[in-house]
Amino acid sequence: MKECIRIFLICPVKSMPGTTEKKIKKYVRALENEHKKTGGLPKKVHWPLRDTPQDDPAGGFNICKTNFRAILVAEEIHI
């Protein structure tokens, strides 16, 4: 049985204003808490700023690999 709906969020990670980050955080929180109001399946959002380590000694390869894997298992992609 399906436990949750997996979502990958495409959004800025670096060099974004704090107001943009706050709006994205609010959006992610709303998605992840939606099931409490609707009774549907929980949503697990992969938010790269939060869920992908950004300190990559491989020059970005590991960041891309982590995000790629999250995209592969996602049922929804939000931009």
TrEMBL record:
Name of the molecule in the record: Uncharacterized protein
Source organism of the structure: Candidatus Portnoybacteria bacterium CG_4_10_14_0_2_um_filter_44_20
